[in-house]
Amino acid sequence: MNGRPAAMATATAVLLSISVLAGCSSGAKTAKSSGPVTIEYWSWEESPTVDPVVAKFNATHKDVQLKFVKEADNPGTQQNVRNAVAAQKNVPCLVQNFGEAPSLASEGLADDITADLDPYLKQGLFAQSALASAQAGGKYYAVPGGSTPAFMVINRKLYDQYGVAVPKTWADVIAAGKVFKQHGIYVMNLAGEDPSTLINLVQQAGGSWYRIDGDKWKVDFLSPESLKAASVVQQLIDDNLVAHQTYTDKPALISYFDSGKMVSLPTSTWQLASYELNYKKSLGDWEPVDLPQFTGATKFVTPSHSPTSGVIVPRGCAHVKEAVEAGVWLNTSKDAINASYQQDTGQYTWPGAIPDPSPWVDSVVPDKLFGTHKSEAGGVILKAARSGRDTWVAGPDYTGMFAELQDQWAKVVTKQTTLQAALQHMQQWTVADLTSKHINVEG
Length: 443
Description:
This protein has two domains: 5-147 and 306-360, Periplasmic binding protein-like II (D-Maltodextrin-Binding Protein, domain 2), CATH 3.40.190.10; 151-303 and 372-442, Periplasmic binding protein-like II (D-Maltodextrin-Binding Protein, domain 2). Helices cover 40% and strands 12% of the residues. It has 17 helices and 16 strands. The strands form six sheets. The chain has a four-stranded mixed beta sheet, sandwiched between helices. Strands 11-6-12 form a three-stranded antiparallel beta sheet. Strands 8-9-16 form a three-stranded mixed beta sheet, with helices on one face.
């Protein structure tokens, strides 16, 4: 079935009639070998991070060995995998994930590894929140990798200076923004090229723009959850409470965060080391706090969708069972997590795939960033990790949809249109796009 992504995409039997994809499933494709099976592992992570983990795997496994192949970046990896799968020659057996599971499945790039992954799922090796983003149509197209926890850091010195309470809800964030505005300070940052804040809020509200219903896709950009998220963002923009610093110039962005002109950052563990290293004026002034919730929420929830976490087994791999074994080890093994320790940062790779990451939480808390609030960080991070929920479903045209959304988002941020109008546009655009691809859609 390789080399026929168009036929697969047009069916949406793609993911809905799983028999089409299941017919290509991995099960019996593992080739016999007289010696250890070597699994090529393609990743754009830096060698000092990956090499110790690969070495630990090879030292603790006799029948399977990993060979790390350094890729330049995410786009380069995508193209190299596409070329290998299309040619069915030199196909790697393990690749750092680079896309949403439905897209990987519909394009015919990732193998259905459900049967080989199932024994590990039954052992409870994975956090529940890590599972959804590895699936499409109830089948697994990636070894789950999980997400990093979502929380907020605030410049507590400035919050205290202006008598603003720590925000518990998004309504509190808006109220705080109105106070800070009087002093020439923005409460948050919304980059004009990045609609991730909106997407995260929709996820936190429990919504998704796509879902599968029987033999068709349903598209709903105007659901109650989506409009609830849009309302928060629209108020922040309408009242001029947010900055619009671009993410494309990282040094300038970090300098701006450090300047005292913006005081609240939804963030995660992987960003903390950069703040610690680069903040000069505000080092020690920040406090980790729970991610604000929607008013009236009955359960504390953080968004945990992580589309490019985990690892995939490309279609055409000759050793699927062994590749899955290695992928599970990389994402869940205590040995793998410990081997990821980086001396220069004093951190381990965040173990987002596993149910209990607490043994490694202290390593991601910087020494100076939080000043007297450092002791609070571990609890905030673990609460966020344990409260992660993933209701998000990515449709088969997600890449194109996101590019269109970016264009709309830029207009929203610059007040050329409203967010509700942008969502109405995205509803019409997405339904038309899926229809043009001969995908069964309702919306």
